[in-house]
Amino acid sequence: MRLLPRTFAAFLILAAAFASAAGAQTWPTKPIRMIAPFPAGGLVDVLARAVGEELARTLGQPVIVENRPGAGGNIGADVVAKAEPDGHTLLMTSPGIQSINQFLYKSMPFDPEQAFAPVSLVADMPMLVVIHPKVGAKTLAELIEMARAKPGKLTFGSAGVGTTGHLGLALLMHAAQIDVTHVPYRGAAPSVTDLIAGQIDGVVDNPPTVMPHIRAGTIMPLAVAARERMSVLPDVPTSAEAGLPGWEASSWFGVVAPAGTPPEIIRRLHEELAKAVRQPGMQRFTTQSGARMVATTPAEFTRLIGEERTKWGAIIKAAKISAE
């Protein structure tokens, strides 16, 4: 008779395992909501819709993209953080939400380290340092030499305080031991507009923002903040090739679910995302945007988020950056 409690406990464990597996088999049972925490038409929105279209095709349920912009992505992320963890509400996330905002804002509506279950990275893109031709530097080394000769004279714009472009610039200044004047804008587009006009000297930004103007010859790239050259800009050297191996920075995008989502659903969702990013339509997104479509395991994505948290937290503290 003493064995009965143990037998019953084992039965319950097996029953739960079968129920969980059955849940993953039947998921999704209704349309999936994909939160894009930035404005419609932006890169995150476009990527969420492209990924959602592929998922809808393979999962047999519509994927409805819902834009919830504001507070550096925190507003939309908070919707997912508080959603039912059943695999039917997902977030197309970014470095800001997962690894940066907690160091910029005095208070957060959620704990980024506890609120989400990482599923997979889906795209990443290295940052570029780009200047106006009038600056006169032909290489990153020459730009650094200019900045050291006249601290604070060079002006570099960004999409705003605490954005990835601002932090990429802060990391560049830290790695090169230089001082340039940061000029924050309300978005990346106006900063690039002023760069083309020669109102500022340079920007550190993502490829989609600057590539059309690089191709037009109105602005000039000096280096890519990565270990490998970009296939869409094969002549632009890496930071190490340009003499600054300590400068590596990228914008990346991935899918997370609310914490507590069953691991079987996370596993299946990862499998479907891995298939999605290999589709020809998604690979064309690489050519158009400069992003690299890539899927990682949940564990790999979790590790990346942690590493980014450590890096950006240190830079934000050292540069004394805070969001308004």
Textual characterization of the structure:
The chain contains 11 helices and 11 strands. Helix 4 (95-104) runs parallel beside helix 11 and helix 6 (164-176) crosses helix 11. Helices cover 45% and strands 18% of the residues. Mean pLDDT is 90; it is low at 15-20. The protein has a 6-stranded mixed β-sheet with strand order 2-1-3-10-4-11, sandwiched between helices. It has a 5-stranded mixed β-sheet with strand order 7-6-8-5-9. It has helices at residues 3-26, 43-59, 74-81, 95-104, 140-149, 164-176, 188-196, 207-216, 263-276, 280-289, 298-319; strands spanning 32-36, 63-67, 89-93, 116-126, 128-131, 155-158, 181-184, 202-205, 220-224, 250-258, 292-293. The chain has 324 residues and is α/β, with parallel strands linked by helices. The protein has 2 domains: 27-124 and 250-319, 3-Layer(aba) Sandwich (D-Maltodextrin-Binding Protein, domain 2); 128-224, D-Maltodextrin-Binding Protein, domain 2 (3-Layer(aba) Sandwich).
Strand content: 15-25%
Please tell me the total number of domains. Answer: 2
Give the full name of the CATH homologous superfamily of the largest domain.
Answer: Bordetella uptake gene, domain 1
Unreliably modeled segments: 15-20
Q: Averaged pLDDT, please?
A: 90
- What's the order of the H and E elements? HEHEHEHEEHEHEHEHEEHHEH
Q: Sheet with the most strands?
A: 6 strands, mixed
Indicate the radius of gyration in whole angstroms.
22 Å
Number of helices: 11
The CATH topology label of the largest domain is: D-Maltodextrin-Binding Protein, domain 2
Q: Tell the overall outline.
A: globular
Span between N and C termini?
66 Å
